[in-house]
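user: can you give me the structure for this one chain? tokens are fine.
assistant: on it. calling the predictor now.
[tool input]
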Amino acid sequence: MVDVFIDSFGARWQGPPPPRYRAAVLSINLTNQLLNPPDDPALDDVVAKQTGQDAGVRDYVLNTPGAAHIIADAVHELTALLATANSRPVQLLVNCWYGRHRAPAIADAIGRRMQAVGARVQVTHHHINRPPVPRKHPRKDCPFCAIVHTGAEATIIREWSDTIAIVPRSGGCVPGHLLVIPRGHVDDFTVDPVVSATTQHRAAELAADIGGQWNYLTSCGPDATQTVMHLHGHLVPRTAGDGLALPWTHPTREQEPAR
């Protein structure tokens, strides 16, 4: 018999785990609470190898301001709910964004506290073994990070909380060519699809506001024409007869290399 089911998961991957049979459900969303270990440059070598069950990350999360309060409130609520549940189990859902660091550390801590007051507890971590997502904090060698974080020269067209739009330093391939760039460092659109989708969403907003017809292009790797290894989308206005060819246009027969 289990009194309390505690499930940690990453909201970025999928919806919450299905409710346990006849369990009363509580939830804690840590996505915008507590410091996220991968966002701390000092933890670069730790977060890639450790999860919220390893001492380095666990202690970091549990010592973050606000963590103790979250744990104490959860224990109080679970204890009160158990007392009125008429022998039904209780399920606690704990999520952060990736389900690898914050949620497992907090879920385990709550589980230990509940066991200490005599509850029978089962803790399950649904996404703790997902591959870590590379860091998003600024890189010193990245020209786009320099624009976003240190005020390097750029013509900024629009700013959002998560993204900026700038004019390419070269001026672009046509007047009105813009780059839409996430504030956090992500190498390319394959690294974090959520950031990629947000960047495209902002590009779509901007294009709709400006009006007209557009190409939105992004690349992954030098062979795919990526020259700056920080995700960016090219927002290119198009007009009839502008002469622009998409990057994957096949060469004409005269341009084909000799075989």
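assistant: here you go. The helical segments are 44-47, 55-62, 67-83, 102-116, 143-150, 193-210. Residues 187 and 229 are 5 Å apart (CA to CA).
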